[in-house]
Design brief:
79% of the residues lie in helices and 0% in strands. The protein is an all-alpha fold. The protein has one domain.
């Protein structure tokens, strides 16, 4: 496993370095730095407040999922695990790294491996679904800036796929019975059955699912507002409606396991998405860099807790 993670790190580092090298060969670094320096202090403060708010909502929605299935863990412990895992996950493939770290750490505290993995999986799927829904809303309100019906159908297709994935997860205990009996008797098969059973518990907690979905949409909107404020701080005149359209795509790119902490390919996508509204590449790259940096800032509390090694807090379940 260590070898696999090491190889993944090298690959992602290479992709990040190549993409950044290509972009910076075409963009003036001086102009990028000048754009970043233009950001007004009050905008930075506003974004930092929103970063704290969106991280609080993310922790809250996970706690709702944990409480729904009766997982016994103190709220402070859940917050500690979430924050530390978000930091540690930055060393692993983007998006899934934090999820893996969170599920593993929670399982160590509660000894309920399947339930821990189920809570993280449902949390992630509802997060993806919320991004798609916000993206569809962005197309509706920002129609004159989009590229036409292809964008609508792309988001609709993405939403359908996530919905199908959500259904497959919640009804995993049903379809897993279709697998060969010989396979279900293996160690992996038995683990999959336990995980499927843990996932199926969420079918009985519709209020929790709806609540987490609404909170997830709130998280995505907060992140879009953060990007909008940073854009205003730089001096961009891009309407907020367009942020509702392009930022969901950027958020998905930031979650893909193809970069280091969001640098590289996700920035290239954001730069490309801002060209149709006349944003200079240097300004767009500066904005994308600030968006990535805001995510890193959000992980600083986790870094502090990790370095502080608060075993007492983490152990209170």
């Amino acid at each position: 496993m260590i070898t696999h993670l090491s190889r993944s790190l090298w690959i992602r580092s290479a992709i990040t370095a190549i993409v950044l090298a290509i972009m910076l060969s075409r963009i003036s670094v001086a102009q990028v730095l000048d754009a970043i320096a233009r950001v007004r202090p009050e905008m930075v403060v506003s974004v930092l407040v929103l970063v704290v708010a969106d991280r609080a909502l993310m922790i809250w929605r996970w706690i709702i999922l944990l409480r729904a299935t009766g997982q016994r863990i103190a709220m402070k412990s859940a917050a500690w695990i979430y924050l530390v895992s978000s930091f540690v996950g930055g060393l692993l493939p983007a998006g899934i790294g934090a999820d893996l770290a969170r599920a593993y750490t929670l399982s160590q505290r509660t000894s309920e491996t399947s339930a821990a993995a189920a809570s993280v999986a449902v949390d992630r799927l509802l997060g993806l679904l919320s991004i798609v829904l916000v993206g569809i809303f962005g197309i509706v309100v920002g129609g004159r800036w989009t590229r036409g019906s292809r964008d609508v159908w792309a988001f609709v297709l993405a939403g359908a796929l996530v919905a199908i994935g959500m259904a497959a997860v919640l009804w995993a205990d049903r379809w897993i019975l279709l697998l060969p009996v010989r396979w279900t008797q293996t160690t992996i098969g038995r683990r999959m059955q336990r995980l499927a059973s843990a996932l199926s518990e969420y079918r009985e907690h519709r209020v929790a699912i709806v609540s987490v979905s609404m909170l997830s949409i709130g998280v995505q909107l907060l992140r879009i507002v953060q990007a909008w404020l940073l854009g205003i701080g730089i001096g961009l005149t891009v309407p907020f409606a367009y942020y509702l359209f392009f930022m969901p795509i950027g958020l998905v790119a930031l979650m893909l396991p193809i970069s280091i902490s969001g640098f590289g390919a996700p920035q290239g996508i954001i730069v490309w998405m801002l060209r149709p509204v006349g944003v200079a590449d240097a300004d767009a790259f500066a904005l994308s860099t600030l968006i990535v940096l805001s995510g890193i800032v959000a992980n600083l509390p986790g870094a502090w807790l990790y370095l502080r090694r608060a075993p007492g807090l983490a152990a209170r379940t």
